[in-house]
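Please check this today:
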Amino acid sequence: MKCGIVIVDTGPLKTLAYGESLDLLFALGISVYISDMVINELRNGVQYAGNKITLAFIDQYTGNSIEVIKTGVPEIFDRLSELGVDPGDESIRRLINHYEDETDGEYALLVSEDDKFMRTADPHGHTYMMTTRPFLQELEQRKVIDDAEAIMIKAEGNAVAAGETPGRGQFSRKREWDQPPGRNKFLRPF
């Protein structure tokens, strides 16, 4: 099975940045896809250390292990808002559609920390959804890293030290997501 990691919001990137572990996105040897909307959101918050670290990382690896997908949403952000369409949701929809069209049905390991999206998403049958902690726990189980929780604790400490207080229990959420696509309950993306 082929699979790509699809990042649809800034949360996982910032968590890994503050956990000094962005390179773990490449630990499985699969491509990473990030939308232009995520890049735009990172640039809009460039005053935060996590955003700066993440942008430098993306710049370094774009065209090699990272592919930035142009959804066109940043250019029409205001218009979508006027129409009552959530630009973030539209960007996610376009990113997933682009991924499925371009990869001929490969599975997408969608890593997100967007509560609303994870609760309401109805992804395609080739999309496996996961939050950052289960992603790290899977790497720990596979002996790629020693301690997933240590990375999460470091991320929280570094975020607070940088003056960016994690919102709504970002690092200690009550519900983690590790969900296979609706049509294939047995799929594991690893």
Notes: The longest strand covers residues 3-7.
